[in-house]
Specification:
The protein has 367 residues and is mainly alpha-helical. The chain has 19 helices and two strands. Helix content is 63%, strand content 2%.
Length: 367
């Protein structure tokens, strides 16, 4: 039974401070005390009479609160991680920080060991220790290409090529040597993927792709008119390449499937309005008539060769055959040399050309 509270002011007794042993055990288990709960316990410390009341047994209100707390614990906690945005670049940076950097002596020893053994684990250590260098170089070209992760991947390929070709006996650091390979692979990727139509297909075009606008801005800042001739002189490239690259950089790509309006206001694709490269029905009919006429004239020329066994065999099995015989095969059949067969064929071809020109006129050249 709870005691009745005495009238008058009672001295409140703060709860006992936790012992050092309890703090040590809490730190071992990774438990952290909530600062809000600690402040509340210090501000609202129970009086001695309240402590005695709580020892007597829970009241009805406390039983209701206990049942409510049990219901809250049993309720499922909603997950808030489903809406979190994943940053691939940040995750990649955290991952490459796990790999330690190597000193110049360690890099040299590993490079020598890789040349002697070709051990892929040694190469992997050289590559992973220089992944930060790839990210640094890739960020230099982030304005030229949006997806920085694509540049990092291409730079990693260049880094692997550098490790494979690196010679530690030349006195050059691996990072200095790898920087050229990393930049080369990144630049090639940007040129190949900046647009659907490749721009930098030659060395002069690659130089203009990266320096044309910068050089024009420099000339304007110096008060010089940035003409194509002046830019070509500054960059040591042909003037025609400057004009072509200027047009290609200024113009955007346009899809042939983009809808455009026709004369009647209907939406039609631009590719449908382009002239067809296929032959029309008139051209097909004219070609069929020409082929029939040519076949007829060839049959007439063959009738003139009746009785001339060698020339008839050359005409049938060399000039008009789908799978002609060789000169040697015809020579062996008639017991003559292949050179003699070639001479007969050349003479027969000249006669056939003159015959068709007489019979068909200019149509013989078309056929």
């Amino acid at each position: 039974m709870a005691r009745a509270k005495k009238p008058g002011k009672q001295k409140s007794t703060p709860p006992p401070a936790p012992s050092s042993e309890h703090d040590a055990s809490s730190e071992e288990h990774g438990e952290e005390a909530s600062p809000s709960s600690t402040s509340e316990e210090a501000d609202t410390a129970p009086a001695s009479s309240d402590v005695l009341d709580s020892e007597a047994g829970p009241s009805d209100d406390e039983e209701e609160e206990a049942s409510t707390d049990s219901e809250v614990v049993d309720a499922p906690v909603p997950s808030s991680t489903s809406l979190a945005r994943f940053d691939a670049m940040a995750a990649y940076l955290r991952e490459i920080q796990r790999h330690p950097l190597l000193t110049p002596e360690q890099t040299h020893d590993l490079a020598v060991k890789f040349i002697e053994s070709q051990d892929p684990e040694v190469a992997a250590r050289l590559v992973t220790s220089n992944l930060r260098l790839v990210v640094k170089i890739a960020y230099e070209y982030r304005r030229a290409y949006k997806n920085i992760m694509d540049l990092v991947q291409e730079g990693n390929i260049g880094l692997m090529q550098a490790v494979r070709r690196y010679d530690p006996y030349r006195g050059v650091k691996l990072s200095s040597y790898a920087a050229w390979w990393i930049r080369a692979y990144i630049l090639r990727f940007i040129l190949n993927n900046w647009r659907l139509v490749k721009l930098g297909t030659t060395q002069a075009q690659r130089k203009l792709f990266f320096n044309l606008r910068k050089k024009r801005a420099e000339l304007q800042a110096m008060g010089i008119d940035p003409t194509n001739a002046e830019i070509a002189k500054q960059l040591n490239v042909p003037e025609a390449d400057v004009a072509e690259m200027d047009v290609r950089l200024a113009a955007n790509e346009r899809s042939l499937d983009a809808p455009v309006g026709d004369s009647e206001g209907r939406a039609i694709a631009k590719v449908d309005m382009m002239p067809s490269m296929a032959e029309g029905p008139e051209a097909l009919m004219a070609d069929e008539e020409l082929q029939a006429l040519l076949k007829e004239k060839l049959a007439g020329f063959r009738e003139q060769l009746v009785g001339k066994e060698k020339e008839l065999a050359i005409f049938d099995q060399r000039l008009v055959a789908d799978e002609p015989l060789t000169l040697q095969e015809l020579g062996d059949r008639f017991g003559i040399s292949r050179e003699r067969v070639r001479q007969l064929e050349q003479r027969l071809t000249s006669r056939l050309r003159e015959y068709l020109k007489e019979e068909m006129g200019d149509a013989a050249e078309v056929g």
